[in-house]
Design brief:
The complex is a heterodimer of chains A (115) and B (112). With 115 residues, chain A is an all-beta fold. Chain A is 0% helix and 48% strand. Chain B is mainly β and 112 residues long. Classes of the chains: A mainly beta (115), B mainly beta (112).
Chain lengths: 115, 112
């Protein structure tokens, strides 16, 4: 079974530029998550989708971050404009359903550096 | 905000020794999970313990949960150099839709 795919793996941009990340979840997984992991910290949930609807985006900085999951499969996360503090690893995860006992499977992440 | 706090922040041991990591959390939970993250790699799920369970085993891993103290511990027995990684606990709330709230993590180094 193929895992969660993410691209790009690395990205370096200057502040105020825009950047987009892509995620392809495990086939058949209805739930998709985007996490932000700042160096030295645990991941923090940014947004959670169930199919193509948003379940939780309470910690998404909506003035600069946006995410979509068209057709309920792939997802993109965008930052516009980026700030220095956005430097982090962005992890995508998926699970079969948005239920407490479901295991989440994580992709390798996209490491973003904002200069 | 981070739910859990883990201690120690870093742990260094020799191969063959046991490693114990602790996690504390603040609110009621449905379950608590432990994840491992190797350098440069994504997170890998290790074990899940439900709120009505007190202890769970998986291979060399043993997890305990004390809901009265809102704490959990992960024991890795007979550690190997390949166990070198960061270990995170993550809680799932009773009313959440599977949302994981992670602790800060413990960096484990196992010396050959």
């Amino acid at each position: 079974e193929a895992g969660v795919a993410q691209s790009p793996r690395y990205k370096i941009i200057e502040k105020r530029q825009s950047v987009a990340f892509w995620c392809n979840p495990i086939s058949g997984h209805a739930t998709l998550y985007w996490y932000q992991q700042i160096l030295g910290q645990g991941p923090k949930l940014l947004i959670q989708f169930q199919n193509n609807g948003v379940v939780d985006d309470s910690q998404l900085p909506k003035d600069r971050f946006s995410a979509e999951r068209l057709k309920g499969v792939d997802s993109t996360l965008k930052i516009q404009p980026a700030k220095l503090e956005d430097s982090a690893v962005y992890l995508c995860a998926s699970s079969r359903q948005a239920l407490p006992l479901e295991t989440q499977y994580f992709g390798p992440g996209t490491r973003l550096l904002v200069l | 905000s981070q739910q859990g706090e883990e201690d120690p922040q870093a742990l260094s041991i020799q191969e063959g020794e046991n490693a114990t990591m602790n996690c504390s959390y603040k609110t009621s939970i449905n379950n608590l999970q432990w994840y491992r993250q190797n350098s440069g790699r994504g997170l890998v799920h290790l074990i899940l313990i439900r709120s009505n369970e007190r202890e769970k085993h998986s291979g060399r891993l043993r997890v305990t949960l004390d809901t009265s103290k809102k704490s959990s511990s992960l024991l890795i027995t007979a550690s190997r150099a390949a166990d070198t990684a960061s270990y995170f606990c993550a809680t799932v709330g009773g009313t959440s839709y599977g949302k994981l709230t992670f602790g800060q993590g413990t960096i484990l180094t196992v010396h050959p």
